Every structure is written in structure tokens, then in C-alpha cells.
Amino acid sequence: MINMVELLLPLFVGAPLLLGGLLFVVPRLSPVQPMIAMGSLLAVLGGAVTLLVLTSDGKVLAHQISLWPEGIAIAFVADAFSALILTAAALVAVISFQYMIVSGESRSPSIPALVLVLVGGVAGALLTADLFNLFVFIEVMLLPSYGLLIFLSRRSDMGASRLYVVVNLLASTLFLAGVGLIYAIQGTVNLAALAGAGDDPATAIATAVCLSAIAVKASVFPVHGWLSRTYAAASPAVAALFSGLHTKVAVYVIYRISAVIFEGDSAWMTAILVIASLTLVVGAFAALGEKDMRAILLFQMVSGIGFILVGVALFTPGAVTAGIVYMTHHMIVMGALLLVASAIEHTYGSTRLERVAGLRTREHLVTAAFVIGSLSLVGLPPFSGFVAKYALVLASADADAAIVAGLLIVVSLVVLVAMMKIWAEMFNGKRHPDVEVLAAESRIRTRNGLYDTEQVNQDEVALEAARAIEHIDPPRGIIGVEGDPHEHRGTRVPLPLIYPALILGGISVALGFGGEFLVSLAEQASAGLIDTGDYVKAVLGR
Amino acid sequence: MSLALSIGLLAAAGVFLVLQRGMIRIILGFVLLTHAVNLLIIAAGGIGRRDAPFIGTDTSMAADPLPQAFVLTAIVIAFAITVVLATLAVVGKGDDDTEADSSLELSDPEDSASEKSGDLK
Prior knowledge:
The complex is a heterodimer of chains A (542) and B (121).
Chain A: H1 2-8, H2 11-23, H3 32-55, E1 61-64, E2 75-78, H4 80-103, H5 111-127, H6 131-151, H7 159-186, H8 201-217, H9 225-231, H10 236-262, H11 266-288, H12 293-314, H13 317-348, H14 359-362, H15 364-378, H16 384-398, H17 402-427, H18 435-448, H19 458-471, H20 495-513, H21 515-530, H22 533-540
Antiparallel strand pairs in A: 1-2
Helix pairs in contact in A: 2-3, 2-5, 3-4, 3-5, 4-5, 4-10, 4-13, 4-20, 4-21, 5-6, 5-10, 6-7, 7-8, 7-9, 8-10, 10-12, 10-13, 11-12, 11-17, 12-13, 12-17, 13-15, 13-16, 13-20, 13-21, 15-17, 15-20, 16-17, 16-20, 18-19, 20-21
Chain B: H1 2-18, H2 23-44, H3 65-90, H4 109-117
Helix pairs in contact in B: 1-2, 2-3
């Protein structure tokens, strides 16, 4: 059984890539396209769960590509850590793609194919045990992302897309240089063969080059600026997809490299701790200055990266466990919140706080999804955020980093303030008089596929807005409230658009109540990172 | 030594060009930067102490094939991304100035007007 699964490990990469290629020959408006894509995403999710079950007792599965001898072959490895992150990533991908199907974005040319290639690249980056191969898979993951960012963006200027490609290309080039340096010093780029090589100063510096390159991709302070600029130009559903995949894969790589090559060498870990702390503070405070829901959430993403990195920087079993729990939680909750923003933007045409207001009484499910997501992000029980933050604060205190523990709590309060800001203006605020007009204009733009600089006929917009007030009925039970200050007729978020966010929110609640389960999985994953013996043995066979 | 100098020169020129504002210059900068990194990987194979792998020569002194495989892969990837970058330089409205983008609020209109005049068209 185990041998069979080991043989199938390359399928996590191969199957989505092949199917992604095949999708280009299927007619693009055929309903088969999204179905094939969804089917194979679900298969990846199912496979990831299988891996998680098989590795949950600490077993490490490895497959040498083409069955070359160990040490020469590129190895694909699945341990509890990679299986857990792969499961979470596949979950976010499935839910985001479900949203894209409902919102009609999956009908744009070649979008299902690009999502499949993206997921194939992510699976490869999570499973490979070879640094050069990792570089290749990161590129496989980035190329479809460029397409997703550009094809689904309604911006007519390409500034954000150019910035995204340039930043990622620069980081990749730097990473490649680091890999070259490691090869020059050690004569190998097999991660397992490099275990503990960080003791040698030259190798340590070469590895640090790789880590700095990956830090750019993870949007760690001070190289975090590109994220909020570029993801803001993407379609919101794409931002949700990226939030669960791109930065988290980069963080995964930081965890893996720090654990295997440096083995928690304290000199390096102190540097990472300072950078992680700065990231979480800067991200949280930068969010306070934004006036757009999506921009606030994007800076929360930066802040979350800091929280996750605190785990690996302290490098005690408890801290690494807490970091992995936080990473899983953050992928799911950021996905939920960004999908809430997607649904709002899709319906109302904007996520600017003052333009879309008074959602609380109109959009009950959207409000519910936002409240679950934001309370979980802040870290209140019974959501998964509480488990993650509680574990992280406790672990920091145990690791004699009381300052960091205090910082985590203070920053959580700042996150709460940012979420309150969204709540106060967008959900609790007074409804903007032009909201129907805005929503109508957004519908017309979507229908005709217009760019942001193209003008819409205002008469048409007025007609559409009037039609919406007349034809879109309020849900039952709200009709006939005399003297209600809130207008209940008119535009509202279609139910299928909000279900994906609610599903992720539900998973966050489930992980909050079942915290023990998640923590035990993360404990297994962190044991594999603290003691890399099994990993090395599985890859090198000795 | 000549390899080290070439890498340094290419990297310096690449970094200089990437720091320019015009998209075409940035693309050229990346072409140079990836060349620098490719040469670095070739150098990682220890070319100073190894020979061309001809039949009949000492195989223990033959050139290391792995860095060459790395470089081959890296060239293909860099080529693909260069095409993406070049496409990005020509599509979209306006010029190829990477930062004259009012929606990103990176520069004020007066600035970008003066920059555009000096930009590649």
C-alpha cells in the first residue's frame, strides 16, 4: 500500500499538468472544462488527505524519480508537514475555483487550465526534495499566475501585472543564484544531502541567499510592498487563490530549508525572529491606514506571514507546532475573508469602505461569513485562530521570548481594530445613496467585459438600477417592515457566491472545536522538522 | 578569473538596467541578470579544474554535466518569462512606464509627465 502510494507521488504534479494541457484543446465555453478542472482539483485534495492519513504517524514517503539510485535521483517526499500544507492548499484551491465557476470567471479563456497548472506547480514545490527542482516548480507555479492575474484583471493599465512579474522574476533569479552557490560549495542540491550543512559558514551564506529570495516571495518585511499593490489589481477570487498558495508555499520553503539545512542554528534564527516580528507589526499597522476592505485584508496577509515565521524562528517543538497550526489556519481564514470581499466586489462593484455600507441588515450570510472570518483572524474562541494564537503565544513564552509573546497579543488587538474598521463602515455604516447605481454599473461592466477606463452609458446604468430595485426581491420575512430605515429591495449578493466563503468559515469553526486534532497533526509535522533523521533516511536511503 | 569578471559585469549591468523605469530596459536588465546567474552555475561545476568530456580522456576530469543541465533548464524558463515580460511591455493602454499608474498612487501626475518624455517608446 505504502509502496504503491510512493510510486504515485509524482502524479500530484503530473496529473494536473497533463490535464491542464489537455484542457486547451477542449472548446472553451464547454461546461466540460470547469468540470475536468474541478474533478482533478478534488482528486488532488483526496490524494493529499490520503497522504495526511498515511504520514500522520510520522512515516515519511519518498519516491526516487525514474527509480535512479538514492542521492542521484530527484526525490519526491511526503511527510506530515508537506501533506498537511498540501491538503490545506488543495482545499483553498477547490473552494476558490468553486467560486470562480459560480461567478463565471472560469469561463474566461484557459482559466481552468491555468488553475490546474498552478496547483500542479504548488504540489511539486511542496513535495520535491531537490533545491533546483524546487526552483523549477516555483516557476511552474508562477507562470500560470501571471496569466490568471492579467486575464481576470479589469484594469486597463498593466502596472500591477508588470510589478508582479518583475518582482517574482528578480526573486527567482536570486534564488537560482543561491542554488548555484550551494552547488559550488557542497556539490549537491539534494535537500536531504545538505542536512546540517549550515554549520559551514560558506554554505550558510549561500543558503541565506536562497532564503532572502524566498522571503521576497513570502512578502516578508522589508520586501512586502509588492503584495498589496499587485494582489489589489487581480480579480478578488484570484487573490483568494494566491493567498492560500503562493506566499504559503514560500513560507513552507522557509520552514523546510531552515529546519533541514540550519537545524535551528540560534544565530540565524534570531535574525529570522527579528524580521518576523517586524513583518507582523508592519503588516498590522499598515492595514489601519487603508480604506478598502481588500487592501486591509492584503496587509493582514503580510502580518500573518510574520506570525507564521515566529514559529520557525523560535524553533522549539512547541513553537514550530504552533507555527504550522497558524499557517493552516491562516490559509483557510484568509481564503474565507478574501472570498467575502470577492462576493461583495462582484455584486457591488467595489470594496471601498464608504461606497458599500450598511451590509449588516441586507446581507445576513455575507455578514455571518465576515464575522466568522474576522473573529477567527483576530484569534477569539471558538475559531481556529484562537487555537493557533494561543499555541503561538504559549510557545513564545516557553521559549523565553516574552517580548514576542507580548507583541503577538498587542498586534492581535491592532488586527481587531482593522477588522472593527471594516465592520463599522462597511457592515454597520449608513448605506451610500448611489449603491444601486454602482452595482448596476458593475453588472453592466461584467456583462460586457469592459475595462476600468472604458465608459458605460449612464442611461443604461440608471435603467439597470431601476430594474434591480423593482425585480430583485428581498428574502422572505423582511417584507413589510414599516418605517424600516434600511432599503431592502434591490441588489444583493447571490447566494452561490457566498457559500464558498461560508464553507471555509465553517472549516475554521470546525478546526477551532477540533483544535486537538489539528494540533496533533502539527505536532507530528514539527517532530519531522525538528529531527530530520527520518526525512534524510527516506530520501537518501541511509 | 575571466568568468568571475564576466559574471560581475553582467550582474552590474543587469541591476543597473532593472532599476530604470522603462519596461524595455527592465527586460534587457533581466536578460543580462539571468546570463550572469547561468554563468555562475556553470562556474559552480568547477570548470577551472575539469576538461571537455572527449572519448579517450580521463573521465574523472570530465566536465560536470549537472550544472549544464541546470543552465539548460534555467535558460528555457528565463526565455519563457522574457516573452511574458515583452508581451506586458506592449499590451495595455498608455506607455511602457512601469510606474506611471495613477491607480497605484505611486507617483503624482507632474512627475510621470516629465518621466514619460524621457522614456522609451
